[in-house]
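Q: what sequence does this backbone want?
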């Protein structure tokens, strides 16, 4: 009886193995369509949604198959997605790492499987640069510097003697959070007119931008904050709503400096409710797919590609048709 049960279990296991093998999608070397595994980190902002669209459109235009997984802000889900791409033997893995640390193991697995990896949008922190073939994304440090340079110009124009700055940061340990902060602080450091009174995390989410503004106003009062520097438009727009609800004029009573350049933020700049929008383009799809093409046709790729970016601010002629959000 016991023996029979053991046979049954073995048979069952064998069946399961066969079924799972049979259901794994097979790649056909004859049709040879390049398949890209793309792990997107979430859908937290308009920037992210525009970025996903850009990747989908560019893959279609290039004639590549795109397997996309959205990780809903969870690093473990991104790691799972990358593992599934390895199991499927995609040609190239593209991913936007939610945070910088914790990728070495899974990227070593990709390396062993001979699958090149492109980092799109955000960077990783690793001592082994061979774990990725290329990075395409913004120079976030330069963006932070642009935000700081704007503030100095504005303080000069206003003849301000002193300004209290509150920072609303993006996701802790993400590249845009780290570098937008570093660039900004480097520029204003040493200028005695500026005091950074606080830095709180809003995770790049509009809802958290609202919460951060509530907390900041509770802590410092409306007269205690002169400038809010926020790491993305979604959080800025959330904070802006709170200021208006409290009868505080955004852009005047409290200056707003933001990063991204989505339409709603650029429109708020045009109506004087935001003072400065540092641009960060989400349209990285074409550059990412060009890298995929090189990597799959034996070409060489550069290790880092930064798109061209600038600033829109209240010193500019905002009627210029080039002043447009995405
Ligand atoms: O600024 C923000 C998004 O990584 C550049 O992520 C991206 C940032 C962008 O959530 O809106």
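A:
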């Amino acid at each position: 009886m016991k023996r029979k049960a053991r046979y049954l279990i073995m048979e069952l296991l064998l069946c399961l193995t066969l079924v799972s093998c049979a259901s794994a999608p097979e790649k056909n070397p004859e049709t040879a369509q390049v398949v890209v595994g793309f792990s997107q980190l979430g859908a937290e902002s308009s920037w992210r949604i525009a970025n996903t669209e850009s990747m989908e459109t560019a893959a279609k235009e290039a004639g590549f198959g795109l397997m996309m997984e959205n990780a809903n802000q969870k690093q473990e889900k991104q790691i799972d997605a990358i593992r599934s791409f390895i199991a499927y033997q995609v040609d190239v893995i593209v991913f936007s790492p939610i945070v910088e640390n914790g990728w070495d193991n899974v990227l070593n697995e990709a390396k062993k499987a001979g699958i090149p990896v492109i980092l799109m949008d955000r960077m990783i922190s690793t001592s082994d640069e061979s774990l990725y073939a290329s990075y395409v994304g913004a120079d976030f440090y330069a963006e932070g510097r642009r935000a700081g340079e704007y503030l100095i110009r504005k303080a000069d124009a206003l003849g301000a003697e002193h300004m209290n700055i509150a920072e609303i940061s993006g996701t802790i340990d993400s590249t845009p959070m780290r570098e937008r902060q570093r660039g900004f602080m480097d520029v204003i450091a040493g200028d005695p007119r500026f005091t950074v009174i606080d830095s709180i995390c809003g995770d790049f989410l509009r809802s958290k931008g609202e919460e951060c503004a509530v907390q900041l106003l509770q802590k410092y009062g409306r007269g205690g904050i002169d400038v809010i520097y926020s790491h993305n438009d979604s959080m800025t727009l959330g904070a802006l709503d709170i200021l208006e609800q409290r009868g505080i004029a955004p852009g005047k009573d409290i200056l707003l400096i933001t990063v991204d350049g989505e339409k709603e933020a650029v429109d708020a700049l045009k109506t004087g409710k935001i003072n400065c929008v540092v641009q960060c383009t989400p349209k990285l799809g074409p550059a990412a797919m060009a890298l995929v093409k090189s990597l799959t046709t034996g070409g060489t790729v550069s290790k880092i590609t930064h798109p061209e970016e600038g600033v829109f601010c209240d010193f500019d002629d905002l009627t210029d048709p080039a002043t447009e959000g995405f």
